[in-house]
Every structure is written in C-alpha cells, then in structure tokens.
Write a structure and sequence with these properties.
binds adenosine-5'-diphosphate, 2 domains, 6-stranded mixed sheet, 5-stranded mixed sheet, Nucleotidyltransferase, domain 5, single chain, about 15% strand, about 375 residues, 15 helices, alpha/beta
Amino acid sequence: MRVLVLNAGSSSLKYRLFDCEKEIGAGVVERIGEPGGVKDHMEALKIAQERLESDGALDSFDSLDAVGHRVVHGGERFTRPALVDEGLIEALEELVPLAPLHNPANIEGILTMRKIAPKTPQVAVFDTAFHQSMPKEACLYAIPLEFYERYAIRRYGFHGTSHAYVCKEAAKLLGRPPASLNMITLHLGNGASACAVEGGRSVDTSMGFTPLEGLVMGTRCGDIDPQIPLFLNEKGVDVQELLNRRSGLKGLCGHNDMREVLKLADEGCDDAKIALEIYTRRIRKYIGAYAALLGRVDALVFTAGIGENSPEVRELSCRGLEGFGIEIDRSKNRAGETEISKEAGRVKIFVVKTDEELEIARQTEALLSDARL
Ligand code: ADP
C-alpha cells in the first residue's frame, strides 16, 4: 500500500510517503501564509506533489492508496483512527475550541487533500486517541463535575501516536505482546510527556487538558501551582504567552534547546545547571508516581529528540531510582545502545527512536484493511 502521511501545521506542511511501510519520499513546505512564502495549504500540497513526482517517488496523487493525517485533538469522540467523511470534518470543527492552534490547520490539510484527490481514502489519526483508555480517575480534575460536562475540561493527553509506537517497539524488543506489559514511556522533545502504560494501554499521562501540564519542556512550564497564573493575571502579565513560550528551560536559563543547556551546564553556568536539575527531577517524580500507579514496571522507554540523543538527561532522569529496579548501565547508555539497563535491573530501560508518521501510516493501512474485510 502507498500511504502519504501529512502533518499540516499553521505555517508548515510535513509529508512522508510510505510504500509498504518503507519511506520512499519526504519533505516539508514551510512559511505557509507568510509574506514571501507559500500562499496556502493548497499551494503547499502542490509543491509536495511536484517534489514527489520529480523525485520519481510518485506518478500522481491518484496513485496513492490512502492519505493519513495527523490530527492533534480528537476529544472524547475519537478513540482510534477514523475514515474522513463529512461527519468527521464537522466533529473536528466542533473540537477547535479545545485545540485552537492545531486543529484548524489539520482540518485545512484534510480539506485541501480532498479537493486534490477526492477519490483517495483519507484517515485521521489523533494524538489524543491512545490516551482515551485512561480511567475516569486519571482524566477527571478535582473541580466541580459540571465543568467537565459544560466545557469538556478533563485530561486528554497528547503525543499518543508516539507513546503507542514506542510502546509497541519496546514490546518487540522484549519479545512479548504489549498486552502483557507495563511500561513508562517518556517522550522528551520540544514538548515532553510521560505515559503510564498498563497492558499496552495508556492509563495515565502527564499532559492534560492542554499540552501545558506535566513535565518541564523547552518553553512550557509543565506543572505549577494553579494559583500562580491567577496571581500573575492580576499583575497584568500575559500568562498564556508566559507559560507557553517563555517558561520551561528557556525561562530558567535562557535556552530552550537541550543541547545548549547541557553545554552551558558543562561549562559551569549555574542557571543551566539548575534548569537541568529541575527538568530531570520532574521526570523522576513522574517515574515514581507512575511506578506507584502501575505496581509493576517491565520497561522504561526514552524517546524523541532529547530522550533519544542525550545520555546525560537519561542518567539524571534515572538517578537514585535503583530502589524501583531502575538502573542505567553507564557504558551502554554512553555508547548509544538500545537497551541501556544493567543486567541486574528489574526494569528494562530502552532508547527507542520514535516515528509518528510511520505509526500513522500503519494505523491508516490497518483501518483500511479492516474496512475492506
Ligand atoms: P519535536 O517535539 O518538535 O518533535 P524533537 O523530538 O525533534 O522535537 O526534539 C527536539 C529537541 O531535541 C531539541 O530542542 C533539542 O533540545 C533536543 N536534542 C536534539 N539532539 C540532542 C542532543 N544530541 N542532545 C540533547 N538534546 C538534543
């Protein structure tokens, strides 16, 4: 099957083309809607099409078997991927208030693709879907229930496609079915989230109603006392911007790129050192919390830009967790091996490269194969 995976953002369009799960083309069109850039998503998609055709990856969009779209927010309605039709588009529009920065661009990508290749089946794959297995006690906040009913305020969780993918990959490494395994997965990229996986299903995750909750991130604060934004609001601070764009590592030491933070910490910069401590202490807190929830942990999985590439962050994130059976083998960790736990450690520790687009392609294929049965 030939599946084109699209990740449409407000100003960029990422695309990857898979043939039977093998990547045969990929790229990104940037500066959509910006002065001097590409006019709109239609023009961006045409550029992608031309590039794929001139690379010889594709004759035309008509020869595609399917298109898989990354959609950030599926609310409570979408617990698995869904075939795009009028009803789905309407449902996505209703979900815009929950993801005002992301869903409109995702919808735009879908509508544009439908115009270009109206006969090609399209599938929406949701970042939130994997976490829809969370029980009520994990996803409800302790505020009056009427606010859940009135405004759908609850924990949704994000990065679900990545958590699902690395969880399945770790199960393969262990040679056991995901349904038999408990894991803690750590997606540490620009955004970051932890997930408690029980029997292959998400039972808790650190991002919440929005992707602001939980771990410390590049520019997002993660967990803070909820009274702080109210206090700052009264002082006239633009809290939305402060907590989403000026906090996290950037707020603590002026840099949101972990490579820079590590370099500065190594050179003795106190702000960078404390930023790194705060960042990794939060991860340890979540590992401990999820170990307590799960009771038994078979594997701990690091993924995304920081999780995959930084042995220092992995070490600091596991520091002092020997009592939980979590013991990193320093030399395996530094050597960049996939399994980095000590032989004696009860919990296997893995570094798994995430691949959200491949997972979207797989889920798209699976849905269409099921639909044909
Ligand atoms: P996104 O969440 O946007 O998909 P990524 O998963 O690609 O982002 O992660 C990007 C982050 O990964 C960068 O901000 C950078 O801090 C971090 N990163 C990449 N390479 C390294 C490295 N070698 N060491 C530490 N951090 C790294």
